[in-house]
Amino acid sequence: MADPITSQVRAPRAEVVTRLATIDDAAAIRAIYNHEVENHTSTLDLVPRSLESQREWIAQRSGAFSAVVAVMRATPDSVVGFASMSPYRERAAYSTTVEDSVYVGRDHAGLGIGRSLMNGLIDTASGSGFHSMIARIEASGEASRALHRACGFELVGIERQVGRKFGRWLDVAVMQLML
Fold it and tell me: What average pLDDT does the chain have?
Protein backbone atom coordinates (compact mmCIF):
# COMPACT_ATOMS: atom_id res chain seq x y z
CA MET A 1 0.00 0.00 0.00
CA ALA A 2 1.34 3.46 -0.92
CA ASP A 3 1.84 6.08 1.75
CA PRO A 4 -0.59 8.86 0.72
CA ILE A 5 1.37 11.54 2.50
CA THR A 6 4.39 11.03 0.26
CA SER A 7 2.49 10.10 -2.89
CA GLN A 8 4.07 11.38 -6.07
CA VAL A 9 3.03 11.75 -9.68
CA ARG A 10 5.20 13.01 -12.49
CA ALA A 11 3.01 15.46 -14.35
CA PRO A 12 3.82 16.65 -17.89
CA ARG A 13 5.21 19.96 -16.61
CA ALA A 14 6.15 19.35 -12.99
CA GLU A 15 6.50 16.84 -10.20
CA VAL A 16 3.74 16.89 -7.58
CA VAL A 17 3.90 15.68 -3.98
CA THR A 18 1.00 15.25 -1.58
CA ARG A 19 1.24 15.94 2.14
CA LEU A 20 -1.03 16.62 5.09
CA ALA A 21 -2.58 20.08 5.03
CA THR A 22 -1.52 22.57 7.67
CA ILE A 23 -3.12 25.78 8.90
CA ASP A 24 -0.57 27.61 6.73
CA ASP A 25 -2.30 26.11 3.65
CA ALA A 26 -5.66 27.68 4.52
CA ALA A 27 -5.40 30.68 2.18
CA ALA A 28 -4.43 28.54 -0.82
CA ILE A 29 -7.13 25.92 -0.14
CA ARG A 30 -9.66 28.70 0.33
CA ALA A 31 -8.69 30.30 -2.99
CA ILE A 32 -9.15 27.02 -4.88
CA TYR A 33 -12.43 26.21 -3.14
CA ASN A 34 -13.95 29.69 -3.35
CA HIS A 35 -13.22 29.83 -7.08
CA GLU A 36 -15.35 26.70 -7.46
CA VAL A 37 -18.09 28.08 -5.18
CA GLU A 38 -18.32 31.33 -7.10
CA ASN A 39 -17.84 30.09 -10.68
CA HIS A 40 -18.60 26.38 -11.10
CA THR A 41 -20.88 23.56 -10.02
CA SER A 42 -18.12 21.23 -8.82
CA THR A 43 -19.43 22.13 -5.37
CA LEU A 44 -23.03 22.93 -4.62
CA ASP A 45 -21.86 25.21 -1.84
CA LEU A 46 -23.19 28.73 -2.38
CA VAL A 47 -21.25 30.63 0.28
CA PRO A 48 -17.51 31.32 -0.09
CA ARG A 49 -15.40 30.41 2.93
CA SER A 50 -13.71 33.02 5.08
CA LEU A 51 -10.07 32.51 5.94
CA GLU A 52 -11.05 31.79 9.54
CA SER A 53 -13.61 29.15 8.55
CA GLN A 54 -11.04 27.54 6.25
CA ARG A 55 -8.57 27.37 9.14
CA GLU A 56 -11.27 25.78 11.32
CA TRP A 57 -12.01 23.26 8.54
CA ILE A 58 -8.35 22.20 8.47
CA ALA A 59 -8.13 22.07 12.28
CA GLN A 60 -11.12 19.70 12.37
CA ARG A 61 -9.44 17.22 10.01
CA SER A 62 -7.42 14.44 11.62
CA GLY A 63 -6.71 10.73 11.25
CA ALA A 64 -8.40 9.17 8.24
CA PHE A 65 -10.38 12.38 7.77
CA SER A 66 -7.27 14.56 7.39
CA ALA A 67 -7.05 17.08 4.60
CA VAL A 68 -4.25 16.48 2.11
CA VAL A 69 -2.73 19.00 -0.28
CA ALA A 70 -0.85 18.63 -3.54
CA VAL A 71 2.18 20.86 -4.00
CA MET A 72 4.78 21.23 -6.69
CA ARG A 73 8.07 19.72 -5.54
CA ALA A 74 9.94 22.79 -6.80
CA THR A 75 7.67 25.11 -4.81
CA PRO A 76 6.45 23.11 -1.78
CA ASP A 77 4.50 26.06 -0.35
CA SER A 78 2.42 26.38 -3.54
CA VAL A 79 -0.78 24.35 -3.05
CA VAL A 80 -2.28 23.29 -6.39
CA GLY A 81 -5.02 20.98 -5.08
CA PHE A 82 -6.51 19.43 -1.97
CA ALA A 83 -8.61 16.48 -0.90
CA SER A 84 -10.31 15.07 2.17
CA MET A 85 -12.69 12.41 3.37
CA SER A 86 -15.77 12.98 5.48
CA PRO A 87 -18.12 10.64 7.28
CA TYR A 88 -20.80 9.57 4.81
CA ARG A 89 -23.71 9.87 7.25
CA GLU A 90 -24.03 10.48 11.00
CA ARG A 91 -25.76 7.21 11.94
CA ALA A 92 -23.45 4.53 13.33
CA ALA A 93 -24.42 1.92 10.74
CA TYR A 94 -22.76 4.08 8.06
CA SER A 95 -19.45 4.38 9.93
CA THR A 96 -17.54 2.14 7.50
CA THR A 97 -18.40 4.36 4.53
CA VAL A 98 -16.70 7.66 3.71
CA GLU A 99 -17.32 10.43 1.19
CA ASP A 100 -14.44 11.98 -0.74
CA SER A 101 -13.78 15.53 -1.93
CA VAL A 102 -11.05 16.45 -4.41
CA TYR A 103 -10.34 19.91 -5.84
CA VAL A 104 -7.53 20.95 -8.17
CA GLY A 105 -6.78 24.53 -9.15
CA ARG A 106 -8.12 25.15 -12.66
CA ASP A 107 -4.70 26.24 -13.92
CA HIS A 108 -3.30 22.82 -12.92
CA ALA A 109 -6.06 20.62 -14.38
CA GLY A 110 -5.06 17.64 -16.50
CA LEU A 111 -1.65 17.09 -14.89
CA GLY A 112 -2.54 14.00 -12.85
CA ILE A 113 -2.87 15.94 -9.60
CA GLY A 114 -6.45 14.82 -8.96
CA ARG A 115 -5.41 11.21 -9.55
CA SER A 116 -2.54 11.51 -7.07
CA LEU A 117 -4.85 13.01 -4.45
CA MET A 118 -7.57 10.42 -5.12
CA ASN A 119 -5.14 7.50 -4.89
CA GLY A 120 -3.92 8.85 -1.56
CA LEU A 121 -7.48 9.03 -0.24
CA ILE A 122 -8.22 5.49 -1.39
CA ASP A 123 -5.07 4.16 0.28
CA THR A 124 -5.90 6.02 3.49
CA ALA A 125 -9.51 4.82 3.50
CA SER A 126 -8.52 1.23 2.85
CA GLY A 127 -5.74 1.32 5.43
CA SER A 128 -8.13 2.81 7.98
CA GLY A 129 -10.55 -0.08 7.63
CA PHE A 130 -13.30 1.64 5.66
CA HIS A 131 -15.39 -0.62 3.43
CA SER A 132 -16.87 1.81 0.91
CA MET A 133 -16.13 5.24 -0.53
CA ILE A 134 -18.83 7.46 -2.03
CA ALA A 135 -18.44 10.40 -4.40
CA ARG A 136 -21.32 12.80 -5.00
CA ILE A 137 -20.53 14.71 -8.20
CA GLU A 138 -22.61 17.29 -10.03
CA ALA A 139 -23.77 15.11 -12.93
CA SER A 140 -22.38 17.26 -15.76
CA GLY A 141 -18.91 17.24 -14.13
CA GLU A 142 -17.37 14.85 -16.61
CA ALA A 143 -13.76 15.44 -15.55
CA SER A 144 -14.55 14.50 -11.96
CA ARG A 145 -16.62 11.52 -13.05
CA ALA A 146 -13.78 10.37 -15.33
CA LEU A 147 -11.27 10.73 -12.49
CA HIS A 148 -13.42 8.59 -10.22
CA ARG A 149 -13.99 5.98 -12.97
CA ALA A 150 -10.24 5.81 -13.56
CA CYS A 151 -9.78 5.12 -9.84
CA GLY A 152 -12.28 2.25 -9.88
CA PHE A 153 -15.52 3.99 -8.88
CA GLU A 154 -18.78 2.91 -10.49
CA LEU A 155 -21.89 4.99 -11.09
CA VAL A 156 -24.59 3.74 -8.71
CA GLY A 157 -27.25 6.37 -9.30
CA ILE A 158 -28.33 9.85 -10.25
CA GLU A 159 -30.15 12.10 -7.79
CA ARG A 160 -32.39 14.27 -9.97
CA GLN A 161 -32.61 18.04 -9.43
CA VAL A 162 -31.39 17.92 -5.83
CA GLY A 163 -29.40 21.15 -6.02
CA ARG A 164 -29.97 24.61 -7.37
CA LYS A 165 -27.11 26.90 -8.33
CA PHE A 166 -26.68 29.71 -10.87
CA GLY A 167 -30.44 29.69 -11.45
CA ARG A 168 -30.70 26.09 -12.61
CA TRP A 169 -31.53 22.69 -11.16
CA LEU A 170 -28.61 20.27 -10.87
CA ASP A 171 -28.44 16.49 -10.77
CA VAL A 172 -25.88 14.68 -8.65
CA ALA A 173 -24.14 11.50 -9.82
CA VAL A 174 -23.41 9.07 -7.00
CA MET A 175 -20.32 6.95 -7.57
CA GLN A 176 -19.00 4.23 -5.27
CA LEU A 177 -15.81 2.29 -4.74
CA MET A 178 -15.79 -0.88 -2.68
CA LEU A 179 -12.49 -0.92 -0.82
Answer: 92
